[in-house]
Predict the structure.
Amino acid sequence: MHSSHIHCFGVKLPNEFPGNEYDNPIKPKLGDSNFSLDGNHFNHNAMRRSLMKFSKSGTHIVLECLMLIDVQNTTISKKYEIPEWNIHFKKCRKRIPNIERLVYWFREKKLPVFHILTQEWVKKCLPWNIQKLYDDNQDARFYHEGVSESVIKPAESEIVIRKNMPSAFGGTDYVQEGYLHKMLAGMQHVTIAGFYSTGCVHETIIEGFNRHKLFFNIVQDCCEAFDDPEAQLFQKLLFERHFSKMNGHVVQLADILT
């Protein structure tokens, strides 16, 4: 949400929703400890490992996995900017090199990386409450354009999940409730990066912390909001007064890489 404008980017899937063969054709049973997803086989116990670091300020950082939120073409491309709403992504584009370095570090350390992408943002794909929100607001806008692609190509072993709510933990029949939480397989510390700090990153942190009892490392220089001054002010308040007091540690890329 941006000022009075409701805005979220989505993608176009090639077949009917739900049950589309394009994404997540296999839904695991939530009681299973091993299951297949997109042709890959994961063992939850094998994914449970962690590294520990101290930030420059002395904060104890536990690193278990990386979650990328909406690092996709529809959140950074100039093509998807909305000048009439003062929505521009120049600052987001500048964060991509940092995010790439963060991903490379997690891959090098053989820690899990989750790519969370927003899928088709059209009425038939959205839960009833978002449909009502959009129907009741003249500034809301559905999107029909193209299949969104991850800016950072997922490695073969990395997990890709498409969401149809702001939070990565939300779900309908398409994104099974509790699906991502089960994928985390007992991990407690999630390092998070992506777009937008004031939107889907924020919502994911709130739900993950409150509902799923996760602790977050929010990598400040790997997250970003719209260029708009109001969005930037909200982001500043989140990092300075909210995240570190309510949801976890605010860290910098250098805290992890060094």
